[in-house]
Amino acid sequence: MAIAKFGRLAKRSYKSYGFCVKLTAVVILGLCFVFVWSVFSPSKFSVTSQRETFDDFAEPVSANGRVTDSGVHFNKNELKNGKESSSEKKGQILEEKDKKRVKGSPPLKSGNMHKDQKNVPKGKKQGDKSTRHTKQAGEQKIPEKERSESDDLQEEKQDEDVNGSEEDTENGEANFNEGEGVQGDTDLANALDLDEEGVEKVEDDSGDSTNSKKNKKKKLGPLFDPKAHYSWKLCSTRSKHNYIPCIDIESSSGKLQSYRHHERSCPKTSVLCLVPLPLDGYGTPVKWPESKVKLQILYKNVAHPKLAAFVKSQNWVVEAGEYLALPENQSALKGGIQHYLESIEEMVPDIEWGNNIRVVLDVGCTDSSFVASLLEKNVLALTLGLKDDLVDLAQLALERGFPAVVSPLATRRLPFPSGVFDALHCSECSISWHSNGGRLLLEMNRILRPGGYFILSSKHDSIEIEEAMSKLTASICWNILADKSDEVSDIDVKIYQKPESNDIYKLRRKKVPPLCKENENPDAAWYASIKNCLHSIPSSVEERGTEWPEGWPKRLETFPDWINNREKLIAESEHWKAIVNNSYLTGMGIDWSSIRNVMDMKAINGGFAAALSQQKVWVMNVVPVHAPDTLPIIYERGLIGIYHDWCESFGSYPRSYDLLHADHLFSRLKNRCKHPIVIVVEMDRIVRPGGWAIIRDKVEILDPLEGILRSLHWEIRLTFGKDREGILCAQKTGWRP
């Protein structure tokens, strides 16, 4: 048995060994055949031969005719025969997507405007990350006001110029018309050399500098269509030449009794019409400081439906021929404004006009004498015109050259940060502060600096109003510093002070109104409702509002601990001083003696306004709502400003400003507006005839912008370009269609 078993095992081993021998022999013979074939066969049949030409492989061409690198190329015949590998299948999918992207699309001409961000620019490279913004199945559309700053950057990355319009300006020369541009000006060249000097790098809304963008070689697409032709028409509204979109009711129907909205409400369609001039035309305003000394205003410039009746009922303003005259030492307050200001300082000695009190909000405009007198004391007082259906005198203040804005005050917050005003003033402003649970007074508490003052003057109120006001101010822990009846002016003056710490809030018996939640942002002010709560007062040294700013003018160049990058702010201020002194004041051809009201349409830290502090001008610093919130820094420096979205109309009367300054406004906000041209139309509305605009931006934006301004009959005074950056200086005429 054992011998038989051993025999069977030996037989199996022999069979297995024989199979291995046979397999080895086959492999060896095969290798020999391959070797012999490769040595003796012609080269065209060689497995290792290479192609001598790739002419029969066509590279994909973008919509603009430019050859793009699409990565791996594939043989379509092999794909049809089903011989593609897994990698070839992926390549086929990419190729088909590329076809869909450019199929049926004409070449994108230089300067065409991207009208809708949902449309992907033609001529993109295959696999470009920006294609993820195309509207595909399952993609959700982001509302305009809810898009974050990171979305802005992503959208800017997808706006590449596929026609090389920027490549044409790589030598640093702008494409402006000959005879109108000024080339080779040293000061203007220095004004454009921001990155080379390392002093200031123009920041975008995310805080990144353009230098980092240059490293990425990002190309922005055209904003305005240079081949477009514009035909303008006049606005037909009830307010006529005083029309303020978003505030005035546009309908001309006689059924509506009110002229104005109770809250800011913009038209559903973009306002692309031009506000007409006054019926009798617009005359050159009385220059500053003559408008302050002579106290005269051209009547036709401020014509108002109810102004004539109002003037007849007042003694502080009279008609004098073609002018409205404001007699010296006359004001809405008896005894004069100087007596009024001196009495306030006597009641509260801690109030030192022009020293610790620099920024004031005057709620409700009367004769603007309060603002004018404070200006002589180095106090920058901003008038808030409430824009009711009665006579609004904010336009008179602007015409005289004083700061003023127009805004409703009802249920929404004012467009200011929290805790920025040194003092608030209300004189006969006809506001029921105690109504609706004291909601409006809570808004005053929000924007008032900790330890700041609320000055309320009015004629003798009823006992009920006095008691309600006393109860309300006690509930928010305002300390009443003075309550005096002035015999000369025949008014009651009350001065309250906001607490400087949270300790007093804890001592309240009734926690009404309650403290706001920790996640409630006190600086959220654009279309934000007034909250019926008290915001906690900052307590940490690193927080804004724990310390009172330095006295003026030291305050302008002093940066507290809560401000980061103080060295950067100092460098920015020095840079703007050089630009203003070496270029703006001398190289633009502007008569600065006629400039009083100035607006910085895209202020960052107030460097431009600080550079003009020695001039006889005031600057409205506008911080776009989608940009980093730097407005508190501007107020901390003793300057004034406001939040705004430039896709909407600004809260001011037409013909309010002598000069507009726009530093990279268009290139930063072009993804925010459906029709970017509305910004140009708004600029035309708020600038006086004869007023100026200084625009610094990319050359490919300034070139078509020049054409738009010409269509509005603006006179182009200067154009200059260097290294893709440019400056355009234009002057508005009195033309209307």
TrEMBL record:
One of its GO terms (molecular function) is methyltransferase activity. It is found in: Endomembrane system; Membrane. Keywords: Glycoprotein, Membrane, Methyltransferase, Signal-anchor, Transferase, Transmembrane, Transmembrane helix. It is a single-pass membrane protein; Single-pass type II membrane protein. One of its GO terms (cellular component) is membrane. It comes from the Eukaryota. Residues 75-99, 113-150 have a biased composition (Basic and acidic residues). Its main location: membrane. This is Methyltransferase. It comes from Coffea canephora (Robusta coffee).
